[in-house]
Amino acid sequence: MSSTTFDFSPLPEQRSEVYGPNANYNQKRCQQLAQEFFRDGVRRARERNERQKEVGKRLEDPKLQPRREQIWAHSGKLEAKYLRFLRTKEGLSNYENVKTIGKGYFGEVRLVRKRQDGKVYALKRLVKTEMISKEQLPRVRAERDALAESDSEWVVKLFTTFQDTTSLYMLMEFLPGGDLMAMLITYEIFSEDITRFYAAEIINAIEAIHKLGFIHRDIKPDNILLDRGGHIKLADFGLSKGFRKNHDSKFYQDLLQQQQQPPSLSYRPQNRNSVNIDEISLTVSNRAQINDWRRSRRVLAYSAVGTPDYIAPELLTYRGYSFEADWWSLGTIIYECLIGWPPFAAEHPHDTYRKIVNWQHSFFFPDDIQLRPNAANLIKSMVCNSDNRLGRNGAAEIKAHPFFEGVDFNGLRRIRAPFVPPLTSDVDTSFFPVEQLPQTDNLLPAADNGGAATDAATSSSTDDALTPEMFLPFLGYTFKRFEKSFV
After folding, report:
1. Helix locations, 88-176, DSSP H
2. Distance (Å, whole) CA 335 – CA 377
3. Which residues have CB under 8 Å from 278's CB, separation 6+?
4. 89-103 per-position pLDDT tens digit
5. Is residue 424 part of a domain?
6. What are the AGC-kinase C-terminal domain coordinates in residue numbering (predicted)?
7. Antiparallel, parallel or unpaired: β 107-114 and 95-103
């Protein structure tokens, strides 16, 4: 038997430097689009197969035999709805603005109502130019991926993400109970039982994120929201850290062919060793000073500096860190719930940074507040060196601490929460500091114009008009969550 040989021409040498910028840009664009297209296609095919298997298992149940045709017909309608769902284009014109409920350095959060069905959501907007100039692209992607992949009852639900030429948008569930910080401002100190309840729920939330491979890195009362039943959900993953290629800043530098730039100085704690500024000496006797600190607390939350009270020291010293950094933050929150203020609170953020870095000398329990031994031991086991920190081997060892004896971590949502927000409507924002936020209407179209102006603006701007910097980093950002249900 004779063998056949083939002669192939040598592979052309790839010399991207000889092509123009448009050719290189289009090559990267096509590569990214192809990767995202096939990745989404495979994921959706798997999801449809899983739904089909689930329906098949239901049809095999003898108890459901009388409803067999009904279930099969319903599953077909569900898949038709899913295909229509994929074809539906999301945009600002689909929503009408209710009010602004949150504001940060890079964008804002608005309460919106969907025009089609009247449902209420929280819409987070991020400005693309700010994301690029402040080198936040890895964090934007990590936040999107963490929320998109999470299906936990302890994490705020992301329904869809979309974008236009200037901004990124994340449509999430609206949690009307406000945040844990508002409760701390109102009640100042929690009982040990109430603290135990919220701490247990936060543990479940942090554990859910860690299982997805993300470090939150910004666990603080402001990011712990309360739903209609008063149970918590973890939100705001803008500082979260993932471990994939597109969660690394080098990925975007290579993508845009930019030279490495030093991080913005706005995000480096300044004057960590300064001792010339007076600190707050927090005790029960100077409650007026504590209240002044609390009032300024909300202002700091909207600033570029942020609120460093809960950050683990390993994040500030540029040494290696891992998932245990989030458990330090929980320890400081438990401290605040029981004592009335965070353990490293100071009048200025850079003093807080200094106290955290030197926590061995600045961490103490006030003499005039006595904690039970289990509570004090739990806090000291979490606010300590990362090598010895409780939780470094997983959430299970925190759950096993004597402070949580008797807690059913799997049944927390079946327990009535200590505080159930009394709501008057589906757009009740009484538990948000909306009076401190500018209520401008320059983001969403008014309800009476049907969004025609926005539609026209959107249709007139295409992807082809975008520069590589405004297009390539945000490829694959779009996400849609299809809510499956059965009769």
Report:
1. 128-133, 137-149
2. 11
3. 347
4. 778 888 999 988 887
5. no
6. 405-487
7. antiparallel
Residue 198: exposure state from Cβ atoms within 10 A (0-12, 13-18, ≥19): buried
Q: Kindly state the helix (H) or strand (E) to which residue 202 belongs, with its residue range.
A: helix 192-211
What is the per-residue pLDDT across 422-443, written as a single tens digit (0 to 9) for each?
A: 999 999 988 887 766 666 655 5
* 368 residue type, one letter: D
What is the C-alpha to C-alpha distance for residues 429 and 177, in angstroms, rounded to an integer? 8
Q: Which two tokens stand for residue 474?
A: 């945000």
SS (H, E, C) 429-484: CCCCCHHHCCCCCCCCCCHHHCCHHHHHHHHHCCHHHCCHHHHHHHCCCCEECCCC
Q: Cβ atoms within 10 A of the Cβ of 486, count? A: 11
Residue 85: inside a domain, yes or no?
Answer: no
CA distance 395 to 100: 35
Q: What SS3 state is found at 411?
A: coil
Range of 192's domain?
A: 180-237+276-414
Strands (E), 180-231: 224-226
356 part of a folded domain = yes
* CA 337/CA 348 separation, integer angstroms: 21
Which residues are part of the catalytic machinery? 218
Per residue in 163-177, pLDDT (tens digit) is 888 888 989 999 999
Nearest to 221 by CA among 332, 319, 300: 332
Cα 103 from Cα 437, distance rounded (Å) = 7
- Helix H or strand E segment including 169: strand 167-173
Specify the DSSP element, H or E, that contains 123. strand 120-127
What does pTM read for this prediction? 0.73
Contact 106, 93 (CB under 8 A): no
How many folded domains does the chain comprise?
Answer: 1
Of 27, 6, 5, 7, nearest to 15 by C-alpha is: 27
CATH number at residue 226: 1.10.510.10
* 330 CB burial (10 A radius; 0-12, 13-18, 19+): buried
Residue 89 is assigned to a ligand binding site: no
Give the burial class of 124: count Cβ atoms within 10 A of its Cβ; 0-12 exposed, 13-18 middle, 19 or more buried: buried
Contact 475, 69 (CB under 8 A): no
